[in-house]
Design a protein that fits this description.
The protein is mainly alpha-helical and about 600 residues long. Helices cover about 65% and strands about 5% of the residues. Strands 4-3-5-7-6 form a five-stranded mixed β-sheet. A two-stranded antiparallel sheet has the order 1-2.
Length: about 600
């Protein structure tokens, strides 16, 4: 792999002194400390309100309590027998390790969990910042002004995603960090063979942790393959990537999938489908890497792509469909349509257009810089710009499909914007003019995601008739929406049983009590969520029959839960409407201490 023009000298100068090697480390540490402290200063004492974060802690507790490494069943979620989750032990394990170490040192399990809630997001943030600094070094952008720009933009961008704040135990933070490593390792730059080998491992680890990153992993594979075809990636680097993908796929499969499930082919969790597709693609790329000549290489890559696509179409056709497309219509109406993070660009434009600034502003600016550079070769080198353009375009496209994709789009925007500002500053004379200074200030402004969020908030204040959804969420009381642990103390004091409650409180029931929760916001818990919907829409006596059939002993009604209002609107004479309308059925008994609280608990009488 050759360096881009002018990169070799820059890399050699940057790595030639101890201070140059230490500066990126200090920047990554400072950025991590800054974001962590900001998060701690604004965090609620009760901890983590996000359902996925709560359930992750439940999984960690189960693992530490002796549940098998290969057993991903959440036995206290859904109907009798539990729900097999699609999450990965690769995330459970390090969090459990932190809890276990702190608990062993102090004898306090609660302290162990509290430390993990802060330390795990900080570790993943440091990992992400290390990826950005590595990208600077690999591409010859390790000069102080360049790394500072990347560090500042990166710290602000990752902070505004909300994925690295204290309490963020779900897999989104580690996925963002791994995505940045994937980008950093396949960029044109130094030590290409080793970088591409590591990139293969990172790509497979991302898939094993969660399928939402599949577009970026597939894009990385296409980028390496086409780079090899047109000479931007050396045969050795392409071969290293392919072999690493194949080997990593096998190792991670053996490490995370139980032998009894080796023939399973789940699409939303790491399975034989991913093993075969990754092995075929990786080994095929390694074989094609021995070909010479652009046309022969192009033909080889084309045949490889067709073979992998054929393999998937013949043996795993069900994995080509949208995993949520087959949901029961009732789940779409009373659950999926209310999930904010799955809103499309069209939905956002209709419901909260001012949020478009924050979700898209930074990434679109980075895309413009990258496209211009890809066409003109400046301000960024063309090779880097092409890769940036591809990843940003994919990130923006995913965000247009589901707004939660913005976290990756913002992360991908950091490097092109940081390099752009760094080069602007490097090329300016010390006595720069006022227009040049204003231009630099403008570049900084459009590169900071915080500025875009503030611009959206100001536009909403000026032109919106009422508070936007983002503002409502930001000002919501965690207690009013049943996210604080004290509300669950009375429920925890009841004899162990089965709780019927809103999907949003399912994870809280699991974390703060020993009961089984019928419903929870997880697409694999179809039967449990349908029982909630059917019971709440049914007449009270019909609901009683349903609850008895499934052994429900407790009903938990979060008075401000959004789905409760949906149930009442759909069935004014239904069970949910009776609970809220003062006509509580005589087969229910309210727990006295919860009357008047945001979470009212009822015992189901014999």
């Amino acid at each position: 792999m050759t360096y881009l023009s002018g990169q070799r000298d820059s890399v050699q100068r940057a790595s030639g002194s101890a201070s140059a090697r230490l500066e990126p480390v200090l920047l990554a540490l400072f950025a991590t400390l800054f974001v962590t402290l900001i998060g701690l200063s604004g965090s609620d004492a009760e901890g983590i309100p996000n359902s996925d974060d709560l359930l992750r802690l439940v999984e960690v507790r189960d693992l530490l309590a002796g549940q098998s490494w290969f057993d991903l069943t959440q036995y206290r979620l859904g109907l009798d027998g539990g729900t097999v989750m699609h999450w990965s032990r690769l995330v459970d394990a390090p969090i459990a390790g932190i809890v276990m170490i702190v608990t062993a040192m102090t004898g306090d399990a609660a302290l162990g969990e509290a430390v993990a809630k802060t330390l795990w997001p900080a570790i993943t943030l440091l990992f992400a910042m290390a990826a950005l600094m590595t990208a600077c070094w690999r591409t010859g952008n390790a000069a102080w002004r360049l790394t500072v720009a990347v560090a500042v933009i990166g710290a602000v961008a990752l902070w505004t995603t909300g994925a690295f704040g204290p309490g963020a135990l779900d897999h989104h933070n580690i996925q963002i960090a791994l995505a940045l490593w994937l980008l950093a390792l396949i960029l044109p730059g130094g030590r290409a063979v080793a970088a591409h080998a590591w990139a293969g491992l990172v790509a497979v680890a991302m898939i094993a942790i969660g399928m939402e990153v599949l577009p970026y992993v597939a894009l990385a594979g296409v980028a390496v393959a086409l780079g090899f075809v047109f000479g931007a990636v050396s045969p050795a680097a392409a071969r290293a990537f392919g072999l690493s993908v194949a080997a990593s796929a096998a190792v991670i499969f053996l490490a995370t999938v139980a032998p009894s499930n080796w023939t399973g082919n789940a699409c939303d969790a790491y399975s034989s489908f991913h093993l075969l597709a990754a092995s075929a693609g990786g080994l095929g790329l390694a074989a094609v890497s021995f070909m010479r000549g652009t046309m022969l290489r192009l033909a080889g890559i084309g045949l490889l792509g067709a073979a992998v696509a054929g393999l998937v179409a013949v043996f795993f056709p069900h994995c080509l469909a949208n995993p949520l497309a087959g949901l029961d219509p009732r789940l779409k109406t009373f659950w999926l349509e209310g999930v904010v993070e799955t809103r499309s660009l069209a939905d956002l434009w209709t419901a909260d257009p001012f949020a478009l600034f924050g979700f898209y502003g930074m990434a679109v600016c980075a895309l413009i810089v990258s496209v211009i550079s890809a066409l003109r070769g400046k301000p960024l080198p063309r090779g880097q710009a092409v890769v940036f353009t591809a990843f940003l375009a994919m990130g923006i496209a995913v965000t247009a499909w589901q707004q939660r994709g913005f976290t990756f789009a913002a992360a991908f925007a950091v490097l092109p914007l940081g390099f752009w500002i760094g080069r602007m500053r490097e090329n300016m004379p010390e006595g720069r003019s006022i227009p040049a200074t204003l231009g630099l200030a403008g570049a900084w402004a459009v590169s900071l995601n915080l500025v875009w969020w503030i611009a959206g908030a100001q536009a909403a204040a000026l032109f919106s008739a009422g508070p936007t959804l983002q503002q409502q969420v930001a000002s919501a009381s965690l207690r009013d929406y049943c996210y604080t642990s004290d509300l669950y103390a009375p429920l925890a004091g009841e004899p162990e049983g089965v709780v019927l409650g809103a999907t949003d409180i399912g994870a809280s029931v699991l974390l703060y009590t020993g009961h089984r929760a019928v419903a929870g916001p997880y697409h694999r818990n179809t039967a449990g969520n349908l029982l909630l919907i059917d019971a709440m829409l049914a007449a009270p006596q019909e609901a009683r029959s349903m609850l008895r059939t499934h052994g429900v002993t407790l009903v938990a009604d979060c008075l401000n839960g959004a789905d409760g209002f949906d149930f009442i609107a759909a069935a004014p004479n239904g069970f949910q409407a009776a609970l809220r309308g003062g006509s509580v059925p005589d087969w229910l008994e309210a727990v006295p201490s919860t009357v008047g609280e945001p979470l009212v608990i009822y015992r189901v009488l014999p």
